[in-house]
Amino acid sequence: MGTIVGVTRVTRGENAKDRQVAVAISDLAAEALRRDSTEAALGMESALRCYLGDREADRPAWPYPSFLRGTETPADRRIELVVSESLWTDFEAEAARQDVTLDQLAEHAAFYLAAEIEAGRVTQRILDDPETGEGAEAG
């Protein structure tokens, strides 16, 4: 409960290191990840990238909600994905910094991405820089 399951390293190419990871999230969070017709694993990777990318955005919804601290994330679905070593290391560090489990922060990241898509901010990032999805924020 609230822990990462089966972390292994997978090497791709000469210098790229990826990790195969799994997070447990609720059915509701999994559905939020699939609202744009992507698979849950791809959606989760996008959620992690979007969430960590907004670290300095100073949005009230960014940090894990304090009223949910100490609660367990419903582990309805186990999402397995392969992510870069650096992305996962950053995500682990952020979960530790906020004093929440990886599963809790993954669930929050899924909802955060869904809210960003709904608000149109993800679309703006893609328009700003189609290669990386990074760029100026739309007000």
Structural summary, described in words:
It is a single chain. The chain has 139 residues and is α+β, with helices and mostly antiparallel strands. The protein has one domain (8-128). Helices cover 44% and strands 17% of the residues. It has helices at 27-33, 40-53, 85-98, 102-119, 121-128; strands at residues 8-12, 16-25, 77-84. Strand 1 (8-12) and strand 2 form a beta hairpin. Helix 1 (27-33) crosses helix 4 (102-119).
- Strand line-up of the largest beta sheet: 1-2-3
- Count of discrete structural domains: 1
Total beta strands: 3
Mean pLDDT: 77
By helix and strand content, what is the structural category? alpha+beta
**Net shape:** globular
Q: What is the rounded distance between the termini?
A: 38 Å
What is the fold's blueprint, element by element?
Blueprint: E1 8-12, E2 16-25, H1 27-33, H2 40-53, E3 77-84, H3 85-98, H4 102-119, H5 121-128
Helix pairs in contact: 1-4, 2-4
Supply the key terms.
single chain, 139 residues, alpha+beta, three-stranded antiparallel beta sheet, 3 strands, globular, disordered N terminus, disordered C terminus
Write a compact overview of the structure shown:
The protein has 139 residues and is an alpha+beta fold.
